[in-house]
Amino acid sequence: MIRKNVVLITGASGEIGHGLIEKISEAGGSSIITIDLQPLAPEIKPLVTREFIGSILEDHLLQRILAEFEVETIYHLAALLSTRAEFTPVAAHQVNVEGTLKLLNFAQAQGESHARPVTFIYPSSIAAYGMPSGDFNRKVKEHEWNMPTTMYGCNKLYCEHLGRYYSRYFKQLAAETLSGKVDFRAIRFPGLISAMTVPSGGTSDYAPEMIHAAAKGEPYACFVEPDTRIPFMVMADAVEATLRLAAAPRESLNQTVYNITAFNPSASEIRDLVLEGFPGADISFDPDLMRLAIVDSWPADVDDSAARTDWGHAPRFGFEDGFSEYLFPRIREHYRS
Ligand code: AKB
Question: Model's pTM, two decimal places?
Fold first, then answer.
């Protein structure tokens, strides 16, 4: 049987997954298969060749895919986010670490059965850092402050290392076992803001929650302090960056893990901008100590110069235009329709 060439997206029914499916199918050329516990949104479903509903922890699913498809690129998005992972740390470890290990092994098996290495795109996170609280003046580089305080952050940092392990010997393709069959590339995402969906279980969720509540005319009590500051990016730029990293020639990549960011407002600066877009929005602050401790351990800003130099990371939207030109019009339209 001839296996079909495809791109595999895990956790595909989340917000990054939907964006990736739209962009990959718009570009044409690659068929897409997906795995998620939840079905894809009805408007996205026709864009994929096959939708597997189930968990990445189910071996039989991965075996079926291995038998039927030749996977060229894996976007491994399935994960339990930071706040949720603190409530269910063992389940988080299972999904975030054991799941990633299964996918890396799957990529290795795929790579052994075709001529080219499998590109493995791994969305890591600013949660991989553990910073001294209140240190606002530092643009953190990838190798600094790798001391996460959360289960999610530990999972992300460890899986970056696992990925590096699976991609070792990449420069010696002729070498023996694990000989560069997996071309692992990780992005440390900042908080992401989508016009279409509100994430759940994350700790950067206060920004999207604030905007979406304002658009719906609902009051919102923000769970961090007004001066809390972490890096953010709009979803379209996150999807674009993911695809750019996947498409970058291997020889231009000097590291396996890259920071990316676009802007880093404080929570009160976000509130002020949301009030310009939605005058009269009812936004207050009612910090949740546990979630505040999580964001306080994340950097206020990151240095993404390696991503800009090596593979041309260049977010289209900054803070003000990201809100006024991208998020507000789309969110208004979303709730109108
Ligand atoms: C979370 O808040 O857990 C995520 C992240 C920053 O990785 N959005």
Answer: 0.94
